[in-house]
Amino acid sequence: MRKLYIALLAAVVATSTYAQEQELSQSWSSNRPDGHAPVSVMGDHTHKKGEFMFSYRYMNMQMDDLKRGNDDVSFDSVLLPNGGEYMVTPTDMPMNMHMLGGMYAVSDKVTLAAMLGYTSMDMEHLTAMGGTFSTASSGITDLKLSALYTVFNKNRQQLHGKVGVSLPTGSIDEMDVTPASNGNEVILPYPMQIGSGTVDALLGATYLWQTDRFSGGNKVNGVIRTGTNDRDYRLGNVYSLDNWIAYKTADWISFSARVKGSVVSEIDGANPDLNPLMVITADTRNSGGTYIDGGLGFNLYAYKGALKNVRLGVEVATPLLQDVNGVQLKRKETVTVGLQYSL
Ligand SMILES: [Cu+2]
């Protein structure tokens, strides 16, 4: 699987070069299946004055087993009886997210975007005594509002910037019962909280190009947290570079390959109600890391008929590299399915 992604990365580079050698004359256009990026990429495109777009995305992310830095480690190695320092380790964590988005172009230069989601997570655990238990949380995510500004759109290339804000509508007060809580609900560790609890700045820039058959993009993105939340901590900033190419095999379908690198900083501060020696996920040293993920997907686009301007995107992404701070659950596949409708 990994070799396949590396081959695709090489193909991304090769076709970008090929594309730049093509003669480019018209405007970059969104009226084709690959006129939007792979479905997991957000804020990748802008709209023409007066256009609306509604989108729904479903995302399923799996995490299981442990990593310390770049290495796989066993559950036993982190638990107290075996020389580890924790009472409890998580063993796996499935996460599901439903996201609703809206876009509206106030002019050819400026598109406004809003996004709100609903997340549910489960975390399975193993204790030093050999017992198992699970906790769950769910709720509305942070509300993201942003403005996209088109710097240029000519010669079938576009560059646009993004300025936005993430508002703390997501809960950081998720609680559940654990074996150590005597039947009472207690606050859950950082990864089981839904929101950041802080106002976060969203900054980005996206470059897009097209030829008759190929298209692609590069997007730099930053999530910059401000202040400290009500529970005395601040999640780490996120910096990422996302790169994709797509090949349009027909007017209604395109296939895509994507490679994304991201760096997530450690949590700053700590929730005083969490004991960092109890469970790995309650220790802020076990947060953040460096990741490279690869994704393969396709977009279907109705360019005429009753469903005109409806787009369906599917993508499966997998980690190619993950180097985590401390010891953390390992990322596995992420599946994203999305519907978009413009009018
Ligand atoms: Cu849109």
Write up this protein:
By secondary structure, the protein is mainly β. The chain has one domain (2-342): monomeric porin ompg (Porin, Beta Barrel). It has one helix at 2-21; strands spanning 52-68, 71-73, 88-105, 110-127, 132-140, 143-154, 157-167, 175-177, 185-187, 200-210, 214-225, 233-234, 238-250, 253-264, 268-269, 289-301, 310-324, 327-342. A twelve-stranded antiparallel beta barrel has the order 1-3-4-6-7-10-11-13-14-16-17-18. A hairpin with a 2-residue loop joins strand 6 (143-154) and strand 7 (157-167). The longest helix is centred in the first third of the chain and has 20 residues, at 2-21. The protein is elongated. The model has no long low-confidence stretch (mean pLDDT 93). It binds copper (II) ion. Residues 45, 47, 53, 103 line the site of copper (II) ion.
List the helices and strands and how they pair.
Elements: H1 2-21, E1 52-68, E2 71-73, E3 88-105, E4 110-127, E5 132-140, E6 143-154, E7 157-167, E8 175-177, E9 185-187, E10 200-210, E11 214-225, E12 233-234, E13 238-250, E14 253-264, E15 268-269, E16 289-301, E17 310-324, E18 327-342
Antiparallel strand pairs: 1-2, 1-3, 1-18, 3-4, 4-5, 4-6, 6-7, 7-10, 8-9, 10-11, 11-13, 12-15, 13-14, 14-16, 16-17, 17-18
